[in-house]
Amino acid sequence: MTTYILQNRHLPEECQALDDELPWPAALSGVALLCTCPSGEHGGILAVEAENADEALAKLTPKFRAGTRAYAGEVYLVGEQIPVA
Ligand SMILES: [Zn+2]
Predict the structure, then answer these.
(1) Residue 50 C-alpha to ligand 1 middle, in angstroms?
(2) Rounded to an integer, what distance in angstroms lies between the CA atom of residue 68 and that of residue 53?
(3) Strand pairing partners for 72?
């Protein structure tokens, strides 16, 4: 399994349509969503475990997935030593 960082961007007028898709799929239960909408830069970031980018994106609702890119990455707690690749 690989950690995928999913970055969504959307227009302000798309917020309501994304909210209308809730609740989130069970596959995302317990996953933190960092939402940037209150700043005026509409979007969100979350990290999921998946075998590949397509599997990671498939965890999202269709409208949220449409504006989302997947990046293979890693998540660290602040203060942890980050291993050098
Ligand atoms: Zn928004």
Answers:
(1) 25
(2) 11
(3) 4
- For residue 5, report the distance from its CA to the centre of ligand 1, in Å: 18
- Contact indicator for 45, 6 with CB cutoff of 8 Å: yes
Model's pTM, two decimal places?
A: 0.87
- Measured in Å, residue 49 CA sits from the centre of ligand 1 at 24
Is residue 61 within 8 A of residue 19, CB to CB? The reply is no
Domains annotated on the chain, with CATH: 2-73 (3.30.70)
Query: How many angstroms is it from 56 CA to the middle of ligand 1?
Result: 21
CA separation for the pair 27, 40 (Å, rounded): 28
pLDDT digits (tens, 9 = 90+) for 6-21: 999 999 999 999 989 8
